């Protein structure tokens, strides 16, 4: 009888321990920054984050969402579109870009909207004949950028404003990366 009681107690303790371990694992999963970034983009922003996505890219953007816009700024107190793009390429892709959106365009192979892939650049000519704005393409027509009116946000290329001023997409050319390293 005592053996049966001890065995039942042991089974109960093992079950409780396993349940606690599972709960802790689930709690850690929701508190994990990578998972939080994936949840944010997937559920809140409607961006499809999957196994092929660059989680480092999404985590970086997630940490900057809501940062105010500041022309010439390059910190979390305020940043402009080209500094935001430059920071992403530096930290996520280990690639140095030039400072202005026009100069960055000189480093890319131009692409149409249909050719864009996650991590490509999107360029805009907003009320100008010159490139005035830049962002990072995320897929599903979404892109991250530092908006002059809303700060760092995710927007959609199909929104009338961005569709109107979209100029081209671009993918950084390998030779442009090497040239910067050599200089």
TrEMBL record:
Where in the sequence is the signal peptide annotated?
1-20
Keywords, A to Z, come to: Hydrolase, Lipoprotein, Protease, Signal, Thiol protease
**SUPFAM superfamilies referenced in this protein's UniProt entry, alphabetically:** Cysteine proteinases (SSF54001)
- Where's the NlpC/P60 domain? 51-173
Molecular-function GO term, any one: cysteine-type peptidase activity
GO process terms (BP): proteolysis
Q: Known InterPro entries for this protein?
A: Murein_DD/LD_carboxypeptidase, NLP_P60_dom, Papain-like_cys_pep_sf
Pfam families for this protein = NLPC_P60 (PF00877)
Record's family? Answer: Belongs to the peptidase C40 family.
- Name used for this protein in its record: Lipoprotein Spr
- Species for this entry: Pedobacter hartonius
Q: Taxonomic lineage per UniProt?
A: Bacteria, Pseudomonadati, Bacteroidota, Sphingobacteriia, Sphingobacteriales
């Amino acid at each position: 009888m005592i053996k049966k009681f001890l065995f039942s107690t042991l089974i109960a303790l093992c079950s409780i321990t396993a349940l606690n371990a599972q709960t802790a694992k689930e709690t850690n999963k929701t508190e994990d920054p990578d998972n939080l970034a994936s949840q944010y983009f997937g559920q809140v922003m409607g961006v499809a984050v999957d196994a092929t996505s660059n989680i480092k890219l999404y985590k970086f953007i997630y940490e900057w969402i809501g940062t105010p816009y500041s022309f010439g700024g390059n910190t979390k107190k305020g940043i402009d579109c080209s500094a935001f793009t430059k920071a992403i390429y530096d930290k996520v892709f280990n690639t140095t870009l030039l400072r202005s959106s026009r100069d960055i365009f000189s480093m890319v192979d131009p692409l149409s909207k249909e050719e864009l892939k996650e991590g490509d650049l999107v360029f805009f000519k907003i009320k100008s004949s010159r490139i005035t704005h830049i962002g990072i393409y995320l897929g599903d027509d979404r892109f991250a950028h530092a908006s002059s009116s809303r700060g760092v946000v995710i927007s959609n290329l199909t929104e009338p404003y961005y569709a109107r001023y979209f100029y081209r997409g671009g993918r950084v050319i390998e030779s442009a990366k090497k040239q910067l390293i050599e200089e």
